[in-house]
Design brief:
This is Signal peptidase. Pfam families: DUF2282. Keywords: Signal. This protein is α+β, with helices and mostly antiparallel strands and 86 residues long. It has one domain. It is 26% helix and 12% strand. The chain has one helix and two strands, in the order H-E-E. A two-stranded antiparallel ribbon has the order 1-2.
Length: 86
Amino acid sequence: MSVKSLAKAPLLAAAMTVALSAAAMQDVSAADMEKCYGIAKAGHNDCKTETSSCAGTAKMDHEASAFVAVPVGTCAKIAGGTLKPM
């Protein structure tokens, strides 16, 4: 393997990671998804909230303003889940 190939490998891996992460993120604005507040575990919220700047920054479990995108109708079935920030 050449030096150029070795140098390109980490760049390719990083690009693939970014691409796969973006593909894995759910579009909360999709018609079949809804924001379910009060159910996110610390560090596992989707998107920014009133108290955090980006996804994965909820400081504690069940943070009132943190949400997780779930299929429409699912939030009502989850204990502690609500469609409005608490």
